[in-house]
Amino acid sequence: MSQDDGASSFQQPPKPPSRKETRDNPAPTLAWIEDRIAEIYSVRQIHDQQVNIAQYTLSTYMDTYTAIHEFCTFTKHGRTETGELNGESLYRRLESAIKAYCQEAAAVISALQDGESIDRPSVPIAVLSAYSRQRNTFSQICKKVEHMFRFLDRHWIKREVDENKHEVYELRRLHDLIWVQEVLGVTWPYQGTPEPHTTTLVMESMKQLQQHGENDTGSTGSEDDLVQSVLDTFRSLGLEFVDGRLSVPKVEPVVETPIEKAIKRAKSKLKPVSEEETARDGSQD
């Protein structure tokens, strides 16, 4: 199926439960949002190179944003007639979907070697080209999700992060950490390590293509551009590729003064001028 066929066959989702229905019983609203999460992180996009969330109409986008807003609002204290439902319920479902998506992306990239030697120039080129495409698609999804789930990010995730809750990260950070672990093979402890070790196919391909460029004066500019493109993605993830290995640059911890902390807390409590306007702006990206 072509990309055009994939786009034309995309069906806009049904309407979510109403505000009253969400207030009375948030479970169906959570189920509706879960369906959107499954749609947004559908592994089919990995093969078709299309982004489902980018095909949402403004109405669908706003429906999803509103459903998330109302679910978080009516489960703020976790006390509902159907049990403990709150921002964490939504966060963990997002986390699981992101992980499954990244695992499939890693499998697709790894399959490109297809038993051939990594020493053949065509293999690392194919691997790194696929990595670059998959990273671009994933970044598009991440950007859209950041906007759509902004209420969750601001009103539940941020509070958990500020309180140093274990295994909770702001949405962009969550996407990046899972990508690094599942696609690049770097196990990144929560406090970080100076030099996480990895021997994934992407790393081997980088080394081979760099060596090929250094030893072969006939290497093409497109190969150099490809290597640079992948290096740029590493840097955007807070990683450096040195001597064939990924490393985490050492950064001195920032110590906030009590006044700075107070200002930060005050800013976090400021309500946006219009949540609906913010969501609409995000849908245009």
TrEMBL record:
Residues 272-285 have a biased composition (Basic and acidic residues). Residues 45-239 form the Cullin N-terminal domain. It holds the Pfam family Cullin. Residues 1-12 have a biased composition (Polar residues). GO terms for biological process: ubiquitin-dependent protein catabolic process. One of its GO terms (molecular function) is ubiquitin protein ligase binding. Gene3D superfamilies: Cullin Repeats. SUPFAM superfamilies: Cullin repeat-like. Residues 1-26, 265-285 are annotated as: Disordered. Transmembrane segments: none annotated. Belongs to the cullin family. This is Cullin N-terminal domain-containing protein. The lineage of its organism: Eukaryota, Fungi, Dikarya, Ascomycota, Pezizomycotina.
